[in-house]
């Protein structure tokens, strides 16, 4: 008797998100323009640091995969994690230490906090925090302090000349925008923001190219590689706190915090789009994602302040990850109650 085989058609099923491999690939490709600019500008130390971080993450993934007898490197998450770690570390850290930090951070996140797709602590954030705790003297200091901003009257006046050098076209573009665009809205843009958008001076690659980061975020959001809720809620919450509560710390006018400066320094945008929405560490429901982004925004205000922190955004990720596990626990309990009591 001939056995009748089952045939399955794709029509009943709906693919809502790309595969993990595709997500990793597209996220990595979105960072290629950053790498190309570094290469064109001859920023070899940053490229070497990123390569060392990738190598460390790959070795960690091989170790975990060997111990668990699972296939390694197939989904590209290890390479992407290493790339992100390299972007968030100062190129002043020796490559060997970058490699070891990336290896140890990814090993801890994957071996202790769960495997690929199940860890609840972001391996990138863990590795960068370890690097800061061991090599904190190599990370840049705060760009500005509340005291210096209060004395100078604005953030750019508080920046030291040796810390912040504007690109040559900054005054020209700023003057054009003020005269032809912003004047209609009674807004005047100080010189310096164009530099922060295009190439902010920093030893940390992720802090430099904010405009490219925004373009990359558009790609990730449009292709549904990341969900918009967590980054949008995070940025909105952080912006509100900066705008309304920063003046209380520096004794300036009410509702006068500098949101743009806060967003364009300290890797806030990079963290919002490349770390916080990581699929393994974010809640599953819309309410859970809103709650996660809101908590992250509040934490970021206390850790990053008015901007310019070298690790505040990364420590925000580490701080909100345990909160996300609580949110997910509540989500599961609500689902269970609905099943038992429809």
Short description:
With 342 residues, this protein is mainly α.
Keywords, separated by commas or semicolons:
342 residues, mainly alpha, 3 domains, 16 helices, 62% helix, disordered N terminus
Order of helices and strands: HHHHHHHHHHHHHHHH
What composes the largest sheet?
none
Structural class, by secondary structure, is mainly alpha
The tally of beta strands, per DSSP, is 0
Rg of Cα set: 22 Å
Helical content, roughly?
55-70%
Average of per-residue pLDDT values: 82
Binned strand content: under 5%
Q: How many structural domains are formed by the residues?
A: 3
Contiguous runs where pLDDT drops below 50 for at least 5 residues:
1-11
> Treating each run of at least 4 consecutive H or I residues as one helix, how many helices?
16
Shape: globular
Alpha-carbon distance between the two ends: 46 Å
Oligomer kind: single chain
């Amino acid at each position: 008797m001939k056995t009748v085989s089952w045939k399955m058609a794709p029509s009943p099923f709906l693919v809502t998100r790309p595969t993990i491999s595709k997500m990793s690939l597209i996220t990595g490709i979105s960072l290629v323009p950053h790498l190309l600019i570094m290469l064109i500008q001859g920023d070899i130390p940053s490229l070497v640091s990123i390569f060392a971080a990738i190598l460390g993450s790959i070795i960690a993934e091989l170790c975990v995969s060997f111990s668990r007898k699972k296939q390694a490197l197939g989904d590209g998450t290890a390479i992407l994690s290493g790339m992100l770690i390299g972007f968030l570390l100062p190129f002043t850290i020796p490559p060997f230490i970058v490699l070891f930090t990336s290896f140890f951070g990814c090993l801890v996140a994957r071996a202790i906090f769960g495997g690929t797709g199940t860890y609840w602590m972001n391996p990138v954030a863990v590795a960068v925090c370890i690097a800061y705790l061991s090599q904190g003297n190599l990370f840049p200091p705060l760009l500005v302090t509340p005291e210096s901003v209060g004395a100078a009257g604005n953030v750019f006046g508080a920046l030291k000349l040796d810390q912040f050098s504007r690109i040559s076209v900054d005054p020209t573009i700023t003057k054009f925008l003020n005269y032809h665009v912003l004047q209609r809205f009674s807004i005047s843009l100080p010189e310096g923001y164009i530099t922060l958008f295009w190439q902010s001076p920093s030893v940390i690659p992720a802090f430099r190219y904010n405009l490219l980061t925004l373009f990359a975020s558009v790609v990730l959001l449009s292709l549904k590689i990341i969900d918009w809720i967590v980054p949008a809620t995070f940025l909105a919450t952080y912006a509100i706190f900066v705008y309304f509560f920063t003046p209380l710390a520096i004794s300036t006018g009410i509702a006068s915090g500098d949101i743009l400066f806060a967003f364009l320094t300290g890797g806030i945008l990079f963290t919002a789009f490349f770390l916080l929405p990581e699929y393994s560490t974010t809640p599953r429901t819309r309410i859970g994602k809103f709650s996660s982004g809101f908590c992250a925004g509040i934490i970021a205000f206390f850790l990053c302040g008015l901007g310019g922190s070298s690790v505040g955004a990364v420590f925000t990720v580490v701080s909100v990850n345990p909160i996300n596990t609580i949110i997910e626990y509540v989500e599961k309990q609500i689902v269970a109650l609905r099943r038992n009591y429809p």
